[in-house]
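Q: A reviewer asked whether we had any structural model of the full assembly, not just the individual parts. We don't, so I'm hoping you can provide one. Inputs are below.
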Amino acid sequence: MGRPQDLLYSKEHEWVRVEGDTATIGITDYAAESMGDIVYVELPKVGAPVRQFGNAGVIESVKAVSDLFTPVSGEVVEVNDALENEPAAVNSDPFGTGWLFKVRLDGGARPAGLLDANDYERLTAE
Amino acid sequence: MTTDATLRQTALHARHLAASARMVPYAGFSMPVQYAGILQEHDAVRHRAGLFDLSHMGQFVLEGDGVAEWADGLCTNSVAGMKPWQARYNIFCNERGGTHDDTIFYRLDGRWLLVVNGANVDKMWNVLQNALPSSGVRLESLHGKRALIAIQGPKSVEMLAGHVPVDIASLKYYFCTETTVDGVPALIARTGYTGEDGFELFVDGDAAAGLWENLLLRHASQGLEPCGLGARDVLRLEAGMPLYGHELTEEIGPIQAGQNWAVKLNKAFTGRAALQSQVERNDYRRIAGLVMSGPVPARDGYAVYFGDRDAGEIRSGSRAPSVENKNVATALLDPALTEPGTEIAVEIRGKRHAATVVPLPFYKRNK
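A: Here is a predicted structure for the entire assembly that you could use as a starting point for your response.
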């Protein structure tokens, strides 16, 4: 799967799409693949504040529970409710219908401490 | 893929890597936890067939005139009563009635094979060595030398039939035979850990990779798939089979785990007095099946409540494709709560989630 070039990535394998002051967040194909078949996603509540690299929820595969971290700080403005019935979308379309939640960025600035697509490619090729 | 130099490799290691299996440390070996994915592998075993590398499991050969009588003093089920070429589930207990290991004995031609859990190989070797009589019993370990490949699923008979010179369909459940597979000497047993029909093939490590490749090559079109330990765990949980370290531990004995059928209290064995007392008191926490009402899976170690009262602990939990895709779990529960239909709650990340007690197994194949 080719990874979108216009996204930012975290070392914890989340992706961020920044549009204006809003960031859409998901996990990468690499993360989804290594977790295996995802059966349950617990997302933060709309209105909740999240802090960069802090805990934002839980992703469960058939066998394992993984923490979900947020790559940006801000206020949660939307979550992907469709994942309640279709958590497998995170596996099948991690950069599309498998998106997780949206955050209104603190200060509206481009988030720091993240990787571009090339750097993330190098990280996962190691 | 990370490789850890301290981990042992089975004879099939190169095959797993070539198939891009995800490898994890398990029982001192680098083992495949999944190939295509747990759900796909689970589906293959329930509807077609799956191939498993179980070479990490311990294989001990017991020889001598005194084996059956000696072994009967160490484990809960009868060894002496086994017919030639029979296989039998058996449990080794500690003095407190907890479990050292759950195993399978195979009675061969003048010898016995004992298969123990991979995680318990060293412990079980010591248990046996420390109990060895001065004469009449010889003990040898084939651990890491002889491979173990399981083929499991409704199509395993038709798939295996063309590879063996005997009528494999007529081999009875929990019996075994010494024959060949693709010309390679093999012990074949009609045993498994998935709740499906199937066979376990004991072959020399040097022959394992060729056999594995050939089976996959010849039967991929019929749906045979390599399967990892992840799918195996889901399959065994659905089938209500205990996994050592979860439903059976040094603290959880066979009566608590509902394996009473494999405990013969009318013979002398290590732990018998403790188990007898448990049966008489009937007040012990015991393993029960749970089905979660909602979408959140219960996991090993989560607390179970009945009202506000601590009622037990989850021992295994998973999404169960063969149980209407619900989340199922086993729990070590207060005896008063094990009646099917009892409503209890599982605490998951600080919140209570409703669950219902159900009979085990969760899944039973149509025979």
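A: Points you may want to mention in the reply: The interface with chain A takes residues 22, 33-34, 37-39, 230, 233-234, 295-297, 299, 318-319, 327, 349 of chain B (CB under 8 Å). The CA atoms of residues 160 and 168 of chain B lie 8 Å apart.
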